[in-house]
Write a structure and sequence with these properties.
Helices cover 51% and strands 8% of the residues. By secondary structure, it is mainly α.
């Protein structure tokens, strides 16, 4: 008969509040993005963040580019921010906002993305031109994708529950609350088209 052997791992886990990271502006973006715009970016990120993470994970399997050979394979395939966004009916409608989210949140806030060369800021027009700038995923950050995906899913669930609670309080009807839950979830899934 085999004797059970207990496995021990005393390494302390990395415990971090990812909700705080997603919803609160860090020092690197606080002076660059207003609070109202940040709230909008958070909303857009909650809607499309899972797909963005999926796209970044897919490009992480390929490494290297002519400007930087990346022989140690620390980075994913460099692409313009526009190409990190998967094409879809609603992602195409929100593409401009998603580029902002990729730059301010995924590059400056989370440090997931690294540019091959620094983007050029035009102080006269108050713009940062990333048209020909390529960004690549720092593969050392891939382990965080699951935590961020959980933030997106839980945020969607909380939003749905809040809508349901408001509908129930207003209508005092459980059927109306259930119908609102179905409608909100259906809309969330339709946004993936």
């Amino acid at each position: 008969m085999n004797k059970y052997t207990k496995i021990i791992d005393d390494q302390k886990p990395v415990i971090q509040n990812y909700f705080f990271i997603v919803f609160f502006r860090g020092e690197r973006v606080k002076d660059k993005v207003s609070l109202i715009r940040w709230v909008w970016f958070c909303f857009v990120e909650i809607l499309f963040g899972e797909e963005i993470l999926e796209s970044l994970a897919m490009t992480s399997s390929v490494s290297g580019c002519p400007e930087d050979e990346d022989t140690r394979r620390k980075y994913g395939k460099p692409q313009q921010l526009n190409f990190h966004i998967p094409s879809g009916l609603f992602t195409n409608k929100f593409r401009t906002q998603l580029i902002q989210v990729l730059y301010y949140k995924y590059y400056l806030q989370y440090l997931f993305l690294q540019p091959i060369s620094e983007p050029t800021e035009n102080k006269k027009t108050n713009t940062i031109d990333v048209t020909r700038k390529r960004f690549r995923l720092n593969k050392g950050m891939l382990y965080l994708f699951i935590a961020f995906r959980r933030v997106y899913l839980l945020s969607s669930l909380v939003f749905n529950l809040l809508v349901d609670a408001v509908v129930f309080i207003i209508s005092n009807s459980l059927e109306s609350a259930i119908i609102s839950a179905i409608i909100v979830e259906t809309l969330r899934r339709i946004m993936k088209l």
